[in-house]
Amino acid sequence: MGDNRVDDRGVGDRIEQLRGLRVWRAQRDAEELALLADLSAAVGDDRGLAEELTPVLRVSTREVERRIDDGKSLTRRMPQLLASMRTGELEAYGARRVLTVVDPLEDDAARQVDGLLADKLIDAPETAWQPGNLAQRARRLVEKVDPGGQTQRARRARAERKLELTPGEHAMSTLEASLPAEVAAACYSRVDGMARSLRHGGDQRTLEQLRADVTADLLLGRDVGVTAPEAAATVYLHVPIDTALTISDEGCELDGYGPIPASIAREIMTNTRSTWRTVLCDPGTGEPVDLGRTRRRPSAVIRDLVRVRDRECVMPWCHRPARHCDHDHERAWAAGDGSTSVANGGPRCRRHHRLKDQPGWNAEYHPAHGITRVTTPHGKTYTGRREPVLTPTRRAPARDTQAHHAQARGTQERGTQARRQAARVDPARDGSAQRGPACDAPAGRRTGPAKTARGTTDPKRQNDDSPPF
């Protein structure tokens, strides 16, 4: 590549060179996996073949076994995914993420997912090829293709929960717990809340150090030195009202993770420590109804509704749960036209919140439509789109956002709640997410906006639930 020095004019060219290298690497990965599948068919002994290829590929025997399995699965069950690798769209790591999702399926179902995924990716934005985004799409398709096996797969995975200790370098090791998604999310939220409390109290350790030290103290029974905030162990579970009433088994989603089986969702929501709150959604868009106010700092209900609506950081390749993100004004408050409302708010993790204002970056998010457009300093634009909380039941007419929300609230009062509401469950307060029924509002009862927007008329209570950063 010649002189390694890169001036501003050459950055764009070097980025394109990296793109070319990615394409080349993806094609070589496809060749290797297809060749391993051919060798497996010819030899008939994968274990012996893996031992023989260990010094050839210069990786561990276990890694060779994984590559052989990946090659066989791609050629037999996911040929269109393999074709995407051959055209340079996807490297081996991204393919493995998808294969892990479809692994429990029968061959016919896996091929069906393969075809549906290929169709979805034809006109998808470039960010859809990110391994995390790709796995999330595949996960939704698996539940669509084989909804009957969803609960069985979840039960089997939960039965295989475990704790692993992996020795590392420089006198360090990794302790990894494989847990049910809602339990893991609640554990992290609790540890994160305690770490942030220590940090805000003047502790000089970094947040990463504090999270690690708090975890160790809790496991060893030592005094952590701080009490977790009440909301620190809260995770959000989206459950449509008909699913909560066992009329349907669709539409359940754990924020920061994705779809989960309806039976698992109902177990979480009937936990004695779970808190129910209703969220009114427009059936035309599937989006929660807006709540607004004119003060800069968002009320607890605005922050909660934005987190419910967006679920993750709005950057197309970031999956940090919204409950761990900043509440960001899309139109700046200082400019005079940036109201503090759901219609002008979006979650951004601290990293991408800061990146938004960096020279050369242009990151726009349109809360009403759920579309993010990010332009890098060297002119490349990426687009991402938010999935609605509920599947829209009709086409929404184009109209003014504020008028639309006012009409939605008026319609609510005229008794259309059954079509417009979904139950949101805050499971695992204090880290528990397993047993017994308790609801603040029954699934069939509507909680009006005045009751839901707790404390928003009391100045002393408007700021008593501070953002996570």
Automatic annotation (TrEMBL):
Molecular-function annotations in GO: endonuclease activity
Domain of life: Bacteria
InterPro entries named among the record's database cross-references: DUF222, HNH_nuc
Composition bias type Polar residues, residue spans: 409-419
Keyword annotations from UniProtKB, A to Z: Endonuclease, Hydrolase, Nuclease
UniProt xrefs under CDD domains: HNHc
Sequence segments annotated as region (Disordered): 359-469
Keyword field contains Manganese: no
Domain DUF222: start-end pairs: 47-310
Biased composition range(s): Basic and acidic residues: 457-469
Protein name: HNH endonuclease signature motif containing protein
Protein source organism: Prauserella alba
